[in-house]
Structure formats: structure tokens, C-alpha cells
Design a protein that fits this description.
Two copies of one chain form a homodimer. By secondary structure, chain A is α+β, with helices and mostly antiparallel strands. The first copy, chain A, is 63% helix and 16% strand. Chain A is elongated. The two termini of chain A are 17 Å apart. The first copy, chain A, binds a DNA duplex (30 and 30 nucleotides) through helix 3 and helix 4.
Chain lengths: 91, 91
DNA sequence: TTCATAAATTCAAATATTTAAATGTTTCTA
DNA sequence: TAGAAACATTTAAATATTTGAATTTATGAA
């Protein structure tokens, strides 16, 4: 994982709303629908869409179309790679 | 570690210069002087000072005064706590 | 086909971040 | 004590991010 990628993931994680979104996955087991995020957090729909996009762009979430709905699943692989880079920083 | 702290650390890590600074610790073994950062990276002195401040504010670096110089050491404890939070996100 | 719903995009305003120049503070040394 | 060196702070400009309102696109249902 190169520095650009580390930077992008870190930035994706550097916002209270996005951290809250990721934490919802623990409660909802694996996947989350766009509309659910809307209900669970006090954010407008465009704002949710914007935050989800950043998480997807950082590859932390994988979007899956389900007809009219959009389901997101967590990408543990990228999270693991990111964690490995951070671990590596500690000598 | 609360969400505010996760946000702060993530933000500290979301900049190319600051990632580069942290990576210098691997080469320099444990500690780094302010002036060294200045030489190693192509940044002005106020810019280095600003970036180091953010890393210190996030507790990723611990500053230690040595007379006229300022020595920074990596704080592996906070990094570990941060990593633990990220690991926890993966269910 | 038409309407309703889910989500993305566009746009503008508010706010935050990055950067360097100028200046200030602290501490070592002559 | 005076000057120099190391680092911090202030300020301003450029840029990026966040947010919501309005609009658009895409899909499912009647």
C-alpha cells in the first residue's frame, strides 16, 4: 500500500460522521443500506451520499446494487492492509 | 479510545508530509530532531513545525526538549490503541 | 407508460486546512 | 550580556472539505 493510499484512507477516517457510519456495521452485521444510514445518523441524504462515496473511494466499503437500493459491505482486506502499514510504522 | 480521538489521529495521518515524517522514524531509529525533518523533507521550517504539532496533538509523537533542540519520539502506545479500534471495526 | 422511491450530482455557502513570510521566544555560546 | 541558532506563533492567501437545497438519474410498482 503506497502513501497516497494511506493518505486517502486516513482522510476517509477523519470525520465523525464517517466513523459513525463504519461503526454501524458492527450492529447491522456485515451490510448496511444507504437509507438506513440516513435514518440512523442525523444527516441529510446528500450528505450521507457524499460520506459513503468517500468511504467507497478509499475502498473501505464496497457498494452492491440491489435493484433500487444500494447495499454496502465492509472491506476487511483494505482495512487489514491499512493496519499492517500502521503496524509497520512502529519499527 | 473515543471517536473524537480516532478522528484526530486519522486526520493527523491524512497528509503526505506527515506520513513521510512518521516514516523517517524507521530510518532514524526511535527519535528525530526537528531540524532533521527540515532537511529530509522539502518543507519550510514553519510548515514542519505545523505538521509536527498536529502529530503531537494527536499523541502520535512525544516531544522532548534537549536544550535548544526538540527531539521527537514515536508513541507506539497510541498507535496500538488506534490500531485496536480499527481492528474492532471489522466485527 | 406513469408515478413514486432510492440515491447521485450540482451548486453555493460556511468552515477548515495547508503553506510561507514575517516575527517572536527560548536557549546556547562567545 | 550580545548574538546566533532552534523552534513556535501569527497572519494572510490559496485550496479543500463539509453541508444542505435543488435537481437529476435510475429503478420498481401500479
Amino acid at each position: 500500500m503506497d502513501n497516497k493510499k494511506i493518505e486517502k484512507i486516513s482522510r476517509a477516517l477523519s470525520d465523525a460522521s464517517r466513523i459513525a457510519i463504519l461503526q454501524q456495521f458492527k450492529k447491522k452485521k456485515d451490510c448496511l443500506y444507504c437509507a438506513e444510514v440516513n435514518d440512523l445518523l442525523d444527516l441529510t441524504q446528500p450528505s450521507v451520499s457524499h460520506h459513503l462515496k468517500q468511504l467507497v473511494d478509499a475502498d473501505l466499503l464496497i457498494p452492491e446494487k440491489e435493484g433500487r437500493n444500494l447495499k454496502y459491505v465492509l472491506n476487511p482486506k483494505v482495512l487489514d492492509e491499512y493496519i499492517a502499514c500502521l503496524t509497520d510504522l512502529k519499527d
